[in-house]
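Students often ask what a 'structure token' actually looks like in practice. Rather than answer in the abstract, let us consider Glycosyltransferase 2-like domain-containing protein, a protein of 352 residues. Its sequence is given first.
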Amino acid sequence: MESVEISVIVPVYNVEAYIEEAMVSLLDQLTAGVEVIVVDDGSPDGSIGLVRRVLERYPQWRDQVRIVTQRNAGVSAARNRGIALAEGRYLAFLDPDDLLLKGYFEALGAVLREHPEVEVVGFNAIYFTHSERGEPRGTRALDIHREPRHYRAGAPDAEARMAQVIHSGQWYVWAGLYHRRLFDGREFDRTLSMFEDAMLIPELYLAAGEIVCLDRALLGYRINPSSAVNSVAERQLDDIRRVIARYRELVRAHRGEQRSNHALSVFCGLVRDYHFTLQRRYPLRRAVEMMRGEFALLIEGRPDLDQALADHLAGLEFKRRSLFRHPYLYNLSKRLALQLRALSRGQRPRIA
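Now compare that with the structural description of the same chain:
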């Protein structure tokens, strides 16, 4: 096989119902210079058998696909194993219940040709509920990047561009292509059961010398009712609190530097996600109190951060700012909007 440009890492555990479609979406558009590393995380079902059967239909790619097996250690350990084995200059990630959309490698290859020094390529995705013959159905947009962005360290407007890039506050490992240099000394935290992406991916962005963001969807993210992200246990809330604490400390430690401002943007995005996650477990009043508690920890004993936070919130668009400043009104307006949408579709609105 010729030199490897991109390594795609696919962790596999108990995904017998979905892995065939995921692999087909990948192998249908595989190209020279791309390797695939399938990490069997001790899956007890027939997932890996299905992977092997799919590979039999693509003999031309046999030398570009590796299957490695380990004892069950979780998705972070599986991804870390794939990273350690990868030979590509760039790393991409596909979860085994998701789909690569058509044109994935074509779009990424075009960016790499135009920006040979790029270190992160971010892109959008779509949510989907089911699929028919490998095509996503029940879709809606996941617009992480609402317009194309380009950041290069050292440019006159570099800090403003970085602020725009990280403003979305949505940190999914599968929504990007990453130079392997960024993983030197970094890996996914094996002790996190959720939000392992949010712990690591912002750091990759902040460490990158050049970033290109596409406003194009390249991946389909399956909304799976049995997925861990659709149920909330206290341990999972502990995980996101750990991630928030990590970026809170970055803000406090680097005050006066641009790194602190960017970390503050990440922090606020994580607190927003925390609030929405809390609402799936607690009444609204409790969720609001816990969200405000995170801000209190940020500014505790630091009047300089109190002002920095106020300045940051003032710069947010109205919808996002209102969540933090007027959470009860925000949630009321959101509930009314959902009820109006249901009425417009001829459905009976839920009264909560």
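One point worth highlighting: Residues 6-229 form a domain with the Spore Coat Polysaccharide Biosynthesis Protein SpsA; Chain A fold (CATH 3.90.550.10). Ask yourself how you might have guessed this from the sequence alone, and why that guess would often be unreliable.
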